[in-house]
Design goal:
single chain; eight-stranded mixed β-sheet; about 15% strand; alpha+beta; globular; L-fuculose-1-phosphate Aldolase; about 230 residues
Length: about 230
């Protein structure tokens, strides 16, 4: 794989920031495998270095078809927001249009896409994940399912953006999950929460002769307000 590695000189004056972001991206990608959210090289992760609101910056992405445990600091792969490769020589993930669409439409600085099994199962059953738990509020509300489209296509990216309207996560029909956040940790945590909620709903709905109770939208709104003050201050 050494002949495919990007030249360190390509990183220019942003070397330190890019190197740190790449290290964090690779760690997050490996975590998706360790936590069972992807198998092999399925799924992908990206992080934006510099720029906000869909303008400026470089998007570092996992490369296509390379096991995450083989990635090294020299394998940094990056594109501009137009999709032009500006760092490295490894081919970027085939889902690059999906990631770039999120960055263009939101202030996100990180995107995580997985093929998590419970979430993917739910994507085949409903149009929207039932409100089985209040943590749906952490994703902006009821999680929608984006209609199926071929992976890597502009159609999939457009479908995902519609499902993400007002949300920080969605399901992709017969495909997986997509979440974004202000950093890799937040984007990953939202993916993990989404997979957990899908597993919860599948478990509860599988009990014979019983139907899970669901939260109302008013109850979810109350939790949304409460979450604004969650965590440590300062």
């Amino acid at each position: 794989m050494s002949e495919q590695r990007g030249d360190r000189t390509d990183r220019g004056d942003q070397g330190g920031e890019v190197s740190a972001a790449w290290e964090a991206l690779v760690a997050t990608a490996r975590r998706t495998v360790a936590d069972g959210l992807v198998v092999g090289t399925s799924g992908n992760v990206s992080v934006r270095v510099g720029g906000t609101g869909g303008t400026g910056g470089i998007v570092l992405v996992t490369p296509s078809g390379v096991p995450y445990d083989r990635l090294t600091p020299d394998d940094v792969t990056g594109v501009d927001l137009g999709g032009r490769q500006v760092l490295g020589t490894l081919v970027p993930t085939s889902e690059l249009p999906l990631h770039l669409a999120v960055y263009e439409a939101t202030d996100a600085t990180a995107v995580v896409h997985t093929h998590a099994v419970h979430a993917t199962a739910v994507s085949t059953l409903v149009e929207e994940l039932p409100l089985v738990h209040y943590m749906a509020a952490a994703l902006g509300g009821p999680v929608r399912v984006a209609p199926y489209a071929t992976y890597g296509s502009a159609e999939l990216a457009a479908n995902a953006l519609r499902a993400l309207d007002g949300r920080t996560g969605c399901l992709l029909r017969n495909h997986g999950t997509l979440t974004h956040g202000t950093g890799l940790d937040q984007a990953y945590d939202r993916t993990a929460q989404l997979e957990w909620m899908c597993r919860l709903w599948l478990t509860a709905s599988s009990v014979p002769h019983l139907t899970p109770t669901l939260l109302t939208h008013d109850q979810l709104t109350e939790v949304t307000e409460k979450l604004r003050g969650y965590g440590q201050r300062g």
